Amino acid sequence: MFRPTSLCLVLWLVACGGRSLAHDRARTPLRLPDLPNFLTLKCDFHIHTVFSDGKVWPDIRAEEAWREGLDAIAITDHIEHQPHKDDLPTAHNRSYQIARSHGEALRLMVIPGSEITRAMPPGHLNAIFLQDATRLDVPDWRDALAEARRQGAFIFWNHPGWRGQQPDGRARWYPEHDEILAKDQLHGIEVVNEREYYPEAHAWCLEKNLAMLSNSDIHNPMGLDYDLHAGDRRPVTLVFARERTLEAVREALFARRTAVFAGGRLIGGEEHMQPLFQRSIRVLTPEVRVRGTGTAYVQIQNESDVTYVFQPQADDADLSFPAEVRLPAGRVALLAVRGRNKETRGAREVALTGRVTNILVRPDTPLTATLTFRVERVPQ
After folding, report:
1. What's the gap between Cα 314 and its chain centre?
2. Separation in Å, CA 42 to CA 182, 222, 236, 255, 260
3. CA gap 13, 2 in Å, rounded
4. Radius of gyration of the chain (CA)
5. How do beta strands 295-302 and 236-241 pair?
6. Residues 323/337, Cβ–Cβ less than 8 Å
7. What is the number of other CB atoms lying within 10 angstroms of the CB of residue 304?
8. Which of 19, 29, 70, 292 has the highest CB neighbour number within 10 Å of its CB?
9. First to last CA, the chain
10. Is 81 left (phi over 0), alpha (psi -120 to 50) or beta?
């Protein structure tokens, strides 16, 4: 016999099951440490909406970025390319205005910008911190860049090795880039665009003192291009700012205090990468005991969302170390320390130097870092 209490139980189970299937509207922080005197802000300065050739309404761009733990985005719809103009008016400032409104509600900084979309050279360039994007809608690209600079814009070169303009995927520097650099109309380059890394652009940033940028150039809904639920993430530009304000972001960009985080790899100057790595990790066992030819384990906590790959470069007559140690994001890893002989005794400080292979300070040059701990040796 079916009793009323049984019906109540069924209804309660259905209700609970429905709630468990509800989609959380929540933010996942992107954990990277701040540097001495600077906040590490996570930013994407190359984003498209339906107001050019994107497929997403502008306020959704703000919520996507907020959910992924970003601090700031720039809306950079094309000036010259308006494929939806039969359905939407050509209104170069409107997408920013819509995204900014939702961004303010979420405490996400939204920066006005546009993409100046021209043939190579000079290619596509983004101008951000614009005052009025409509004034860039002019026939000559030189006039567009001059107007952007008059408005105080930060200007950077997009996807310099894009196969739509460089069929072999190799970035090339043209006389036109010398020209705009000399006119103070080029302040940075995308070292990474989407999933593409351009080593030539990385080298140019170092040679010419340009800011390194890493942006999504997203057109689709973010979940179509990145498997977010599996931990995949868009590339971001790290901005080392004095405070969490638009003016501080702008100041840091012009000061070239930026780095790249893309595809599990960090790219930037050693002055930024060294403290970022050192502040990400914490040695939990600062002293271990190694008995004879036995093994002890140094426990290392990685408090960031970057999995580091550390390759010891040790020449130690008494101790041996593994060829490679992975320091998984948000977890504790074991560094095995093994004795080479049975009779050694005494305690000493060990400064284990190695290469962090997924942090590049120059093209093909990984960061050199040191892990410090103390080892007590006792006979076997």
Report:
1. 31
2. 29, 16, 6, 17, 10
3. 16
4. 25
5. unpaired
6. no
7. 20
8. 70
9. 74
10. beta
Strands 265-267 and 258-262: antiparallel
Domain regions of the chain by residue span: 24-268, 280-378
Give the tokens for residue 230. Answer: 């599996």
Q: What separation in angstroms does the CA of 136 have from each of 121, 141, 177, 253? A: 18, 9, 19, 21
* Contact in structure between 358 and 265 (CB atoms under 8 Å): yes
> What are the pLDDT digits (tens) for 26-40?
999 999 999 999 999
Tokens 């906590």 belong to 301
Amino acid letter, 136: L
Strands 287-291 and 325-327: unpaired
Q: Which two tokens stand for residue 83?
A: 């494929």
Distance CA 346, CA 289 (A): 10
261: nearest Cα among 251, 273, 244: 273
Question: Which residue, 160, 182, 141, is CA-closest to 46?
Answer: 160
Q: 24-268 — its CATH code? A: 3.20.20.140
Q: What is the mean pLDDT of residues 133-139?
A: 98
The encoded tokens of residue 153 equal: 């814009």
Which residue in this structure is represented by tokens 């190695």? 354
DSSP states of 68-86:
TT-SEEEE--BSS--TTTT
In angstroms, how far is CA 265 from the centroid of its own chain? 9
CATH fold label, 280-378: Immunoglobulin-like (2.60.40)
For 270-306, the pLDDT digits (tens) are 999 999 999 999 999 999 999 999 999 999 999 999 9
pLDDT in tens, 173-225: 999 999 999 999 999 999 999 999 999 999 999 999 999 999 999 999 999 99
Name which of 143, 145, 140 is nearest 157 in CA terms: 145
Distance of alpha carbon 112 from alpha carbon 92, whole angstroms: 10
Location of structure tokens 């911190």: 129
**Alpha-carbon span 151 to 133, nearest angstrom:** 10
Residues ≥6 apart with Cβ < 8 Å to 245: 109
